[in-house]
Amino acid sequence: xxxxxxxxxxxxxxxVALIIIxxxxxxxxxxxxxxxxxxxxxxxxxxxxxxxxxxxxxRTFIAGADISEFGGGAPEAASLADAQAAMENAPVPVIAAxxxxxxxxxxxxxxxxxxxxxxRSAKFGLPEVNLGLLPGAGGTQRLPRLVGVxxxxxMMTSGRHIGTDEALAGGLADEVVDGDTDALRAAAxxxxxxxxxxxxxxVKVRDRDDKVAEVRGNDQLFADFRASIARKTRGFLAPEYxxxxxxxxxxxxxxxxxxxxxxxxxxxxxGPQSAAQRYYFFAERAANKIPDIAKDTPVxxxxxxxxxxxxxxxxxxxxxxxxxxxxxxxxxxxxxALDRGLAVxxxxxxxxxxxxxxxxxxxxxxxxxxxxxxxxxxFADCDIVIEAVFEDMELKQSIFRELDEICxxxxxxxxxxxALDINEIAAVTSRPESVIGMHFFSPANVMKLLENVRGExxxxxxxATAMAIGKRIGKVCVMVGxxxxxxxxxxxxxxxxxxxxxxxxxxxxxxxxxxxYDFGFPMGPFAMSDLAGLDIGWKEETSSSSTVREVLxxxxxxxxxxxxxxxxxxxxxxxxTPDPEVEQLIRDFAVSQGVEQREVGDDEVLERCLxxxxxxxxxxxxxxxxxxxxxxxVVWVNGYGWPVxxxxxxxxxxxxxxxxxxxxxxxxxxxxxxxxxxxxxxxARLADEGGQLQQYKN
Length: 698
Ligand code: 3HC
Ligand code: NAI
Hints:
Blueprint lengths: L1 E4 L2 E6 L2 E6 L9 H16 L4 E6 L23 H9 L5 E5 L2 E3 L1 H6 L4 E5 L3 E3 L13 H9 L1 H10 L5 H7 L4 E3 L3 H17 L12 H4 L5 H11 L8 H14 L2 H16 L2 H15 L18 E4 L3 H12 L4 E4 L3 H20 L6 H8 L1 E4 L10 E4 L5 H14 L5 E4 L6 H6 L7 E6 L8 E5 L6 H13 L3 E5 L7 H18 L3 H11 L5 H8 L15 H7 L12 E3 L6 E3 L1 H13 L9 H21 L6 H12 L8 H8 L1 H14 L9 H9 L9
Parallel strand pairs: 3-4, 4-5, 5-7, 6-8, 7-9, 10-11, 10-13, 11-12, 13-14, 14-15, 16-17
Antiparallel strand pairs: 1-2, 2-3, 15-16, 18-19
The structure holds 3-hydroxybutanoyl-coenzyme A and 1,4-dihydronicotinamide adenine dinucleotide.
3-hydroxybutanoyl-coenzyme A binds next to β6, α3 and α12.
């Protein structure tokens, strides 16, 4: 065995050389890996190896370029292209042995091997698009040549990882092996020996033309594909750039296609979208870490879950647990509400099955894991109980008193409250250390964010368990502290205040929504209100025309559910149209409030919606409610549709420049009242010092 660099070594077995990469945690292509790969190829050939196997130690094959090197700063080393050329042009068969995930640059390396042998559980993908990039090491030219254009388009614009069945069918894998990494090594060595004995050709993917030739001249294929992803990829540059590279693979010789890839890759790499998306990649992972909770803190072994309330949230929460095989007991106040809630859950599963996102038999399997009841005593054996009843402190406190009586010692008691004080809820129990907030987002079975809310007395184990169980059910978790609305809703309230104000001053709901939609949000605040229902929390008896929303409710406008809200909805297509009646009601209301109307510019709409959020985010950091600035961005990207290519409100403010943001907040604060315009001292200080919100840590 010979060490080539700190992370790559060369071994020999009979006449076969093994280049082994060991660069934990994910064998990313750091400079010493590239150098080791390059040196290993040259040395193996010089030593007279008959074949070469590339294999990785640890949990995975190469999972991509080392993203942390993208900003620069890595020592000079062999380029990835040199290492790839050494593989592709080797005079003996080169076999990539793949386990775990061959992603991005990792797959691009494997595409330069002459053959690929994979463990059955391996996954393959080019996820660069999720970093605002395209595969920059020949993947855009080689993948379509190997798997064909339709599959390459789909894989590269979605970043989806494919399994070995698809990989075999598409030619990405030549052989699939069952067992562990020892079995993989043995199979790759056998494959290598056979390749030598049988004189198998040294296949260079770059030289293949059949699959790309099939669609040459078929512009319609690209037009149709672009149309099919237009809605999902609105605002993002990278998907379109990936498509252009595949067009080049089809229409130009390999080397010219590579030049297109290089040019577009560099453009993306130096642009703001990829900077935001790469920042976000690390932000999401940083959010898992809670500074005062040791990594080895014991967590509860959650084998059963209770959910109280089978309404909008309870049903979705229950699905999350059933989806990963954890049995759920869901309790409602009466049979009718329970039946209604369970029927919605079944319908959701049936819809997923009809769309093909789960197999048909999963509907009954998952429903079989959800037991309904009207008796909270059935929570007695649950490891975790999540309360999702109406948003009412007295009700929640009375329920937690009961849960305290019923649940077994040590069970985790969580509330899905969206704004209430977890400490006040915990205080009514004899075990506040077991109580925590778990704020899911609607629809809870779909939305990725889980805002965990740590109470003053939540134990380390409960805090660690909330993060661990969140991960297990597929959520992106952020731990926050107690305050009204926590991180997400507290900032949302600020946006809402200004949006509501501006429609009195003369902006229309459609204008405000359009500005935010164009910024990249899936919808604006007024469309969102219509979707949620204008009458949430509204009571006819007490309604006093004190807000536009009350006025609209009084005029029978309930939102999308009755086709009339801030907009009027087409009964067939549900398409919204601005309604002159609403605009008149708003004008009348403005007059009654003594607000003079004027034209409000789009820039003002955007600034007044977003700057108070940034200011509030800084206050949240100052108060220690969020652990780090980047956590706030994770909340907004995953919970509220902040466009990830703008990184989140903290990253966005930094990218504008905090001094400019502060100047604007001061300017608006001089003419508008409200605490949300009072400048956060932290924000002022960071602006003075040239600091950044996204890097701020408590
Ligand atoms: N570069 C640097 N660090 C990376 C990395 C990468 N490509 N991929 C993962 N890491 C780090 C993570 O930051 C994390 O670090 P931490 O423990 O200090 O927080 C650690 O590795 C483990 O990552 P995960 O927590 O994500 O581990 P999982 O087991 O959940 O997932 C994975 C593993 C599927 C490999 C996932 O990490 C992943 O998707 N990684 C990114 C893959 C990717 O995007 N590759 C393409 C890179 S761009 C590229 O290759 C350009 C090329 O075309 C030129
Ligand atoms: P919902 O009104 O749809 O459902 C509440 C359910 O609780 C109803 O089915 C009701 O019958 C049941 N319930 C009430 N009292 C009960 C009791 N004593 N015992 C058993 N069941 C009882 O409300 P939704 O929207 O699901 O909200 C639930 C909680 O989740 C609230 O705290 C809310 O703030 C929070 N939340 C709501 C979000 C949303 O978008 N709807 C998002 C995030 C959190």
